[in-house]
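Hey, does this match?
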Amino acid sequence: MAETAAAHPSPASSGTLALTFDDGPHPDSTPELIDALTAAGHRATFFLCGAQAERHPELVRALDRAGMAIANHTWSHPSLPGLSPSAVRDEIHSTNRVLAELTGRPPVLFRPPYGATSPEIGRIAADAGLTETLWDVDPRDWDGTEPAEIVAVLTTARPGDTVLLHDHGNRNTVTALPAVLAALTVRGLRSAVLPQR
């Protein structure tokens, strides 16, 4: 997770950036993240783990109903470079299957856990119909960063940036999000879903 990564694709409009949330869905954070984003008129992309999606199908459907983009973050969140190609394919394809069953359409974006990837992993994802997507800004919310620091980092994000956040029950992220969205709105910025191709 600590790697800095470039994001592809990036938000299309000059007045937008992309808030993205990894590792969910999670009952202790997903509903509140949806509520905060919806109330502020923002949308985000959620990179979901297949095992979590299977465990909480109602949260996947809630994200979909709220207009959030749903993307693939592997089945069990392993570091993919340490796996065999067949195991990487299983992680990706199993997640594609459950997300397609829950939303009625397959995901088109993929983020490797920890940002750990390789040309071969990129090819496997592409063969599954997925575009690999990393990030530009990481406030390290996965590492216990306090809400005020998350807000401080994200209020300096620029148009076109893709921001890495997490949806794994982290209360600091949930607490910070309304202030982040308010600050973005004041700056004339809106979080939009990443392009779905």
User: Anything to note?
Assistant: The longest strand covers residues 16-22. The chain has a mean pLDDT of 93. Helices lie at 30-40, 50-55, 57-65, 85-103, 119-127, 147-154, 171-186.
